[in-house]
Amino acid sequence: MSEHISSSETVATLKLLLIGSSGTGKSCLLARFVDGNFPDDSSATIGVDFKVKVIENEGKKYKLTIWDTAGQERFRTLTSSYYRGAQGVILVYDVSNRDSFNDLQIWLTELDTYCSSKEVVRMIVGNKVDKESSREVSKQEGQEFARKLQTLFVECSAKTKFGVQQAFDELVQQIIDTPSLWQKQATTNVRIQSNTNDVSQEYSGCSC
Ligand SMILES: Nc1nc2c(ncn2[C@@H]2O[C@H](COP(=O)(O)OP(=O)(O)OP(=O)(O)O)[C@@H](O)[C@H]2O)c(=O)[nH]1
Questions:
Q1: What pTM, to 2 d.p., does this model score?
Q2: Under CATH, which number does the domain 7-176 receive?
């Protein structure tokens, strides 16, 4: 999957969502994937933020809008709107923090509450594999958990960039391979107020 930023028409706008406990590295993963860097000082997300990236897959362009949500409960508002129209959801935990792995159950419950569509592609991502010496969750354990839930699974490091491209590539590929997710649904107009952006976006997304 290669990346091109051009003004030519995109085939579809895909909405991806990053959820997971505070400090797992969601904002850093987003910065690494979209901007190609690792922020020196990543402060807690307040509400929701998002970035846009245009990618090319088999000669067709897709616009990804990737929403980065706050892990801290007190900074989460209008939660249902985060999920509306999403075609892919990435649940992030920190491999060096077992609590963040245990918290996945809570995030999965929220996901089921606000996004009941079975088609929405789910991926579990174990971030911070560069912290191998303080690892608390083995790769096998993460894989097994994802296998039981029938979700995609990737380990990565936003810091070293290991696995980050792979994670987004696999998620997007599965969405593209499920045309019913992005081809037929009614277009929804969503007005987004985030801490860095205020734009109107159109999504051909699912109805969850
Ligand atoms: N070692 C290491 N540290 C990371 C990695 N990714 C993020 N961090 C650090 O983890 C901390 C939290 O990162 P954020 O990206 O702000 O976490 P978040 O999940 O967006 O947190 P909230 O916005 O509160 O939900 C920061 O100090 C980052 O520098 C990684 O891959 N490796």
A1: 0.88
A2: 3.40.50.300
